[in-house]
């Protein structure tokens, strides 16, 4: 096999959902935008529905279509981007619930889909999506008169528990939803970990389900094994890879493995990472190229067939940190080229 093996553990996904659900005060939904954080929205959605999730969130109406096909008619699917121009048919035909973000979206929704379920997204300070306090104050009675199914907002700094923005947004969200007799939602993964003040009626975890920080107790969901294409010996003073960026200091055995930045192993990640054979760590050396990575396997007693890049020693967050990014980006960048296998 010349392609790398990406293994996705759906049992771990389900366990992460159940464990986050046990931490949450109210209902626990699941965020499956971006094709289930890159892991296949059909399998991810079906697994989480079996685990007990009843409500799902996607970013765009088109993503909701794929999820509806996977889940059947009965479960709730909500769309963070709301009711965009051109979405009306999809929202109607696939029974998707837009989280309305603006006055324009609200007018569009009430005019084109009267009686169709909707929620309202409020901006409690992040200044990204949702109605601002003044807009909401003006429209609140009209909106509530049409029976929204949810009012929600999103935290900007929930992955930093000590950040004063958390308490500030909590206060603003409380003020904006005071006396509103509609289920409320504020917390994603980070918000769940901030404690029950942040939970309200429904939590919306994403990254924690998929094994990423800030949920430190998450079970890892993916592992990645890279096949060795070739092994060679290099002498002290010889270089490896583009730009001669790595030079051997000792007689070194180099394994060239099949995966690179075209597979989402972004070029910036090189230094500081290892590839593993069992528990033995072998450092990545030289530049990550489009399809290939080079690894110093001198300390192995046998030439390996595969080297593992993502595993319980080295998680998506370690890989992300080495590249100056976050686990979310590693997951959603995983390429189309992997041989994917799903267990559970
Ligand atoms: C992506 C997203 C979530 C899930 O966030 P995680 O940090 O992945 O748990 C929840 N709510 C909104 C509005 C989002 O955009």
TrEMBL record:
Enzyme Commission code: 5.1.1.1
Reactions that this protein is recorded to catalyse: L-alanine = D-alanine
Pathway: Amino-acid biosynthesis; D-alanine biosynthesis; D-alanine from L-alanine: step 1/1
PROSITE patterns attached to this UniProt entry: ALANINE_RACEMASE (PS00395)
CDD domains referenced in this protein's UniProt entry, alphabetically: PLPDE_III_AR (cd00430)
Active site: 33 (proton acceptor), 242 (proton acceptor)
Transmembrane segments: none
Sites where the protein binds substrate: 128, 290
GO CC annotation terms, alphabetical: cytosol
SUPFAM superfamilies documented for this protein: Alanine racemase C-terminal domain-like (SSF50621), PLP-binding barrel (SSF51419)
Family annotation (Pfam families): Ala_racemase_C (PF00842), Ala_racemase_N (PF01168)
Family: Belongs to the alanine racemase family.
Protein name: Alanine racemase
Gene of this entry: alr
